[in-house]
Amino acid sequence: MARLHQLLANVPKEKYGCVCRLSNGEAFTVEWLAGDYVEHMEHHLRQIFQKA
């Protein structure tokens, strides 16, 4: 997660709207991809802490 934070901290906010095209043809903005990644990690953390 720290690397993602470093990456996004160095991306100018005006670039968050840039579109990334995945190998399957789907397109998402940088902002959406970052948010989706965070939600995905939170999901895994909830799974870990529910088992503890």
Molecular structure report:
By secondary structure, this protein is mainly alpha-helical. It has one domain. Helix content is 58%, strand content 12%. The chain is built from 2 helices and 2 strands. It has helices at residues 2-9, 30-51; strands spanning 19-21, 27-29. The protein has a two-stranded antiparallel ribbon. Strand 1 and strand 2 form a beta hairpin. The radius of gyration is 14 Å and the shape is flat. It starts with a helix and ends with a helix.
Q: Tally the structural domains.
A: 1
Radius of gyration: 14 Å
User: What separation lies between the terminal Cα atoms?
Assistant: 21 Å
Q: How are the strands of the biggest sheet laid out side by side?
A: 1-2
Low-confidence stretches: none
Q: What string, H for helix and E for strand, traces the elements in order?
A: HEEH
In this structure, how is the largest beta sheet organized? Answer: 2 strands, antiparallel
Mean pLDDT, as a whole number? 90
Fraction in helix = 55-70%
* Dominant shape: flat
State which percent range the strand residues make up. Answer: 5-15%
Number of helices: 2
Number of strands: 2
